[in-house]
Amino acid sequence: MSILGNRVVRREDQKFLTSGGTYVDDLPLRDAAYVTYVRSTIAHARIGSIDVNEASAAPGVLTVITGADVDLAPVPPVFPMMNAAMVRPWLATDKVRFVGEPLAAIVSETRAQGVDATELVSVDYEPLDAVVDLEAAEHGALLFDDAGNNVAFDVSEMMGFAPTDDFFDGCDVVVRQRIVNQRVAPCPLEVRAAAAAWGDDGRLTHWGSTQTPNGLQGQIAGAFGLDPSQVRVIAPDVGGGFGAKGAFYPEEQLLGWIAKRIGRPVRWVEARSESMLTLGHGRGQVQYVELGGSRDGTLLALRVVVLQDCGAYPALGALLPMMTRMMASGTYDIAKVEFGAKSLVTTTCPTVAYRGAGRPEATAAIERTVDVFAAEIGMDPGALRRRNLVRADQFPFTSPTGTSYDSGDYGQALDLVLQSAGYEALRAEQAERRARHDVHQLGIGISTYVEITNPLPGGEYGGVEITPAGKAIVRAGTFSHGQGHATTFAMLVSDRLGIDLDDIEFVQGDTDQIRSGQGTVGSRSLQTAGPALREASALVIEQGRELAAQLLEASPDDIVLDPVAGAFHVAGTPSMTRTWADVAGEAGPEGLRADIDFEPFGPSFPFGAHVAVVDVDTETGEVRLERLIAVDDSGTILNPLITEGQRHGGIAQGVAQALMEEMRYDDDGNPLTSTLAEYAMISACELPSFELVPMETPTPLNELGAKGIGESGTIGATPAVQNAVVDALSHLGVRHIDMPLSPERVWRAIVDVE
User: Who's near 548: CB < 8 A, 6+ residues apart?
Assistant: First the structure.
């Protein structure tokens, strides 16, 4: 019987739950100096001068470095279609553009000495107007004097978006809704940390808390003008990333330059307050959605216009509207779809990818507006969805924005979640509460979603090696930081080779051992590295058959591997066997090994449906999530335990955005939620036990049939909860409430309609 599909406990957990992981800040690094950054206290200003004299003379300070000292070229925007004038200095020189931007680096013997010395650096600022309001940002104060305006990326112009007055001709009803998908902070348990040291051989070793070790290697090598082979990146255990730890950060990548300048290793770890200010934020869109259709509930036309906040410097966040565009029509068969967007710089922390990266924003836009349309025509929101879903017999399905969905059964997902929720009984209870004029009203929110996983082009590396003892070493170019790869990938190899899980070692995160890899982003790992490892396993089996044939004095064509026993024998003669240790002993100096670069046939499209049930106190605005029922179909499930864990985490983050989380700035660009005392992170106390409903629709794009699962829960949960809160108050006349649905915001919405 295959191990695949079974609930296998994660092999990694014993270490994390007992001795604990080994993170960058835990690593012993002899003679390392500490780097501490001096950061801007003003959102937008010209720098008159930076006086470091007193800090340079402080106890334990080895040197103080400013932008004028750094001889590296400024970093251009991530993608060539972005405004080329919006370059980022390694340390701010002429201007500061957000609170927290690094101005100087203090190198000291101890961490405490560096922190103390930051207080001694004096900066002369010439304040400029802040740019915080996204809807006024395009023509606000210029962040980059040579850029012409604050548009980092004009998606509308690139895609030829030209709205016309006749777009909604033929529609009986057109609803319009402005939606704010608020900025959030990723808040990983482990903040950013890195270290750098030069070896006697002239190679740089960089330790980093990263999701993409090989990508980081390429970035550092490119910045320093080195061949990638001259840079070794090691990522030890990483305490959470959520997309933010796959971005460029000058504080981290400058360490190698500083280490060479002072002639000794250096290390850096940010404080939590620094992390809140400068670790890339997520989301940050204002959406204008128009949805037209007939009074019988047929959706005919959709127009979405997005303003994307990309913060002070255009990073991956500036590209997010392209992902939103791809998924704009969601699970629905809508004949006409138009999409336009602009990404704008503001005097705030740059935005990057955050769990879902553009796809949650798309789902939030369409799902919220579908509910608005249902309310307008007086139709049940579940029935409206069912009427317009892409049918199972339409796959593969190409949306009006050109996105090709691989496989799905959206109607079944909706039916499953409504049945599991007891939808009709919930509606009956809601009607009873309304009739009694209860203070606590019941809200039922639905969302259906489809998302794209493995969205970026490129392959993935996977390698399998058999040791002389007959054990296996598995290598992958992805990077697990909570996803359970050490278990899942070992399961795949064990299933093919018949080697016990406990005899399989998993290697990742060291570019000297992993020749290439895109890392773990976009829920891509299983569908890319998984097939690579299956293919590598097959090649190792073929090598083993050749060697076993010599040992058994038979033709390789007659040799078979018993995947249960993990031994080779002549077909029909299972009593005479040769183990993996036997054949590995005959392999010669090159060993028994296969390394594969797998090229996927394309992205896959997980989908699902969520129902949220909330209790809303109409006197205080307090929202309590009573139930969350979720169908998340990610294709073939290899390990239900790991899949459910990913769903749990994703749903929690989706609920958190709906109800609590928001990174806020005042009109002067000062962060108002810069610590966890002000920024509301969700915990188990605010969450019910999630009701997870299984469903599997394999993709034809890889032999495993697997799609991604890491972001699905986040995408489905947020609009379900938002819709539920509005639904609870709809009989009072509340049409829409923007996230986060805090008690004050909900209370004000109630008061405004009274």
Answer: 559, 568, 569, 578, 582, 583
Eight-state DSSP code of residue 297 = S
Query: DSSP character for 49?
Result: E
pLDDT at 1 over 80: no
Contact yes or no for 517/213 (Cβ under 8 A): yes
Chain segment 393-416, per-residue pLDDT in tens: 999 999 999 999 999 999 999 999
Closest Cα partner for 462 from 703, 226, 206?
A: 703
pTM over 0.85: yes
Q: Write the CB contacts of 378 (distance below 8 Å, at least 6 apart in sequence).
A: none
Written as one string, the DSSP assignment of 538-566 is HHHHHHHHHHHHHHHTS-GGGEEEETTTT
- 379 φ/ψ angles, rounded to the nearest 5 degrees: -115, 145
User: Residue 396, preceding bond cis, omega within 30 degrees?
Assistant: yes
Are the C-beta atoms of 103 and 66 separated by less than 8 Å?
yes
Residues in Cβ contact with 14 at an 8 Å cutoff, skipping those fewer than 6 apart: none
Q: First-to-last CA distance in the chain?
A: 64
Decide: helix, strand or coil at residue 427. Answer: helix
Q: Cα–Cα distance between 355 and 363 in angstroms, integer? A: 13
How far is Cα 350 from Cα 418, in angstroms, rounded to an integer?
Answer: 39
Burial 574-613 (b: 16+ CB within 10 A, else e): eeebbbbebbbbebeeeebbbbbbbebebbbbbbbbbbbb
